[in-house]
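Inverse folding, one chain.
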């Protein structure tokens, strides 16, 4: 059976998969809001490169864009990571539970082995 994920979840993980985009998110988070120009200057990359990264972040629903005159201002979307957070939490709970069960099995087998000597 194929596992299907929502398109928004795929876009979120794709956006987060790039180190530059994670740094841009961290900068916006720290400053609350940033213009595209501020991001260009901080990372010392070309404007088209920053623009491309911002479009990916915006498509993933991780940032919002507000235009004031000629300035494009970006801020974090509060709910942008909610779906990814839920996915991670479900999988983390599964793996923690699986490892706990494995630890219990190993402890039980070790005790059975010790009793047999």
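Residues assigned per position:
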């Amino acid at each position: 059976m194929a596992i299907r994920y929502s398109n928004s979840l795929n876009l979120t993980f794709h956006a987060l998969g790039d180190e530059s985009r994670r740094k841009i998110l961290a900068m916006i988070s720290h400053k609350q809001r940033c213009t595209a120009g501020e991001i260009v200057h901080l990372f010392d990359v070309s404007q088209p490169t920053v623009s491309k990264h911002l479009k990916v972040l915006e498509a993933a629903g991780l940032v919002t864009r507000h235009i004031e005159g000629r300035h494009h201002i970006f801020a974090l979307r509060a709910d942008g990571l909610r779906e990814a957070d839920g996915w991670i939490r479900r999988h983390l709970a599964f793996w923690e539970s699986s490892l706990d069960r494995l630890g219990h099995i190993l402890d039980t087998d070790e005790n059975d082995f010790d009793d047999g000597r």
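The chain has a mean pLDDT of 83. The radius of gyration is 22 Å.
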